[in-house]
Amino acid sequence: MSGTVYLVSRLAIEKGQSDAFKKHARELIAFVRDTQPGTLIYEWYLEQDENACTIVQSFRDSSAFVAHVENGGEVTRQFLKTCRFIQVDFYGDVSDDLREMAKTWSAGIVPYHDGFSRM
Question: Number of structural domains, the chain?
Answer without folding.
Answer: 1
